[in-house]
């Protein structure tokens, strides 16, 4: 059994959520959490169930399966068993008209089954309130993310160069890389909040494969196995001398992730122009990191950095062709793509102990995606990197 989330940690999270709801939604009376990730955040376990948070009463975690496991794992004080929504509904005599739910991820059919026994007249969103609370990490959370960052650094900087061999496929590399990650302590999954997104491991790309178009909202691309599994390494693309190797993966410990991209030159150096563009991306990462201080505004950081870039660098920056993203970094924690984002529209000032993955990258025709990504903690001195200091483009002999 892994270490339980401390009870005081759960208490602080619940208080912070209630305070945020009081501030943003002053008329709220009841909120219901259905997603397993948010259940875990507030209770320390993830089961088939729902967490009901009343404004003026203790929150209750109603569990259908597995109640036994929930009791074993969680220090949350109020866990009750239910066979169906009907069982839980009997504990609530008078309901308000409005319930606050996770509108970004709650299926309509599931809500309708719930509403059959909890006849609310309307629902409203609490997504931004939860994400705002989750955005600022506690020392407990930072400790886990720092552990993930150490694994990430060791695997991508020290162990991957020894795995690369001529003739291996991207899919073979993905299998070997996953095995190494698990061996080093990775929790085994990469979780995203992005709707309907499956990511087995991440982007493991040889050469121009990293420029291939994909629905994934990131600067890199991926050929994948095929149309049904576009985010898994290709069986056909084999590693050859002169390839740029691009690996963009998450790593996690006890639910908490870091994000890191590392590049390698297999067999020989890339053209000088490509190396120059990569170095520019590293400089951009470092400049953004220097601005990750409490009080700085993500949108201002984004516009400041983008306003400095020359036309040559902007060509295929943060993507390739028409498939370019409009951000430079993203929050990270229980999911790899959390709020806030280093992008326009994010105008709330940064807070100490927010955590960001910064990923300036550039696509180069016939070569692939150069650039870098690391995970940084917001501090008064600027971003503190927890995933290593290597600048990438590691030279690997055949």
Strand order of the largest sheet: 13-12-14-17-18
Helical percentage? 25-40%
Q: Report the β-strand fraction as a percent range.
A: 15-25%
Largest sheet: 5 strands, antiparallel
Structural class: alpha+beta
Which stretches are poorly predicted, pLDDT < 50 over at least 5 residues?
Answer: none
Radius of gyration: 22 Å
Secondary-structure element pattern, one letter each = HEHEEHEHEHEHHHEEEHHHEEEEEEEEEE
Distance between the termini: 42 Å
Number of strands: 19
Task: Write down the overall mean pLDDT.
Answer: 96
Shape: globular
Number of helices: 11
Structure description:
The structure is a single chain. By secondary structure, the protein is α+β, with helices and mostly antiparallel strands. Helix content is 32%, strand content 22%. It is built from eleven helices and 19 strands. It has helices spanning 7-24, 36-43, 67-73, 85-89, 108-115, 127-135, 139-163, 170-184, 272-290, 298-308, 311-314; strands at residues 30-33, 48-54, 60-65, 79-81, 98-101, 122-125, 202-206, 244-253, 256-266, 319-320, 323-324, 329-331, 338-342, 355-358, 361-364, 368-371, 374-377, 384-385, 394-396. It has a five-stranded antiparallel beta sheet with strand order 13-12-14-17-18. A hairpin with a 2-residue loop joins β8 (244-253) and β9. The longest helix has 25 residues, at 139-163. The model has no long low-confidence stretch (mean pLDDT 96).
